[in-house]
Automatic annotation (TrEMBL):
Cofactor(s) it depends on: Mg(2+)
Catalytic activity reported: a 2'-deoxyribonucleoside 5'-diphosphate + ATP = a 2'-deoxyribonucleoside 5'-triphosphate + ADP; a ribonucleoside 5'-diphosphate + ATP = a ribonucleoside 5'-triphosphate + ADP
Domain of life: Eukaryota
Annotated ranges, domain Nucleoside diphosphate kinase-like: 1-133
SMART domains assigned: NDK (SM00562)
Protein name listed in UniProt: Nucleoside diphosphate kinase
Signal peptide positions on this chain: none
Amino acid sequence: MIKPDGVQTRLIPEIINRFEEKHFSLKGMKLMSVERGLAEKHYEDLSGEHVFRRLVDYIVSSGPVVAMIWEGKNVVETVREMIGPTRPSDCEYATIRGEFGIDKIRNVIHGSDSVEIANKEIALWFPEGPVHWDKKINNYWNKFD
Ligand code: UDP
Ligand code: MG
């Protein structure tokens, strides 16, 4: 999920490009305002932490986010590596948060922690489910000569 700071600093194409370069497949994407209930459910594991209220307020009131579903081999682990640790100042330069993160709240993007959590988050953010498409359709882009 590209957080409001990532959308406002025009990082949508940069982020999509990085995941496409890794040959991950986009299976869902939407620009959306986040309602409080969704933000609270998404971050419910942090509900006992002092940062919870600030984080939820931030997601709800700072502008839209881009929710995405990406599929591919080791996608969850690889995307976490590409994102970097929570605090941008702890990140390697060549990570999304390391290059573009402002602070630990405005750290550009959320990535799921595990496949199990990813599936829960997909159900939460995409009640309609991912977009399914027949891989054979890719043949359409083969060149005929
Ligand atoms: N967060 C924070 N301070 C903390 C822990 C978390 O500001 O001490 C915020 C931060 O924006 C982080 C989000 O809460 O991205 C979710 O926390 P998590 O521990 O899941 O970090 P992430 O998986 O995003 O690196
Ligand atoms: Mg997390």
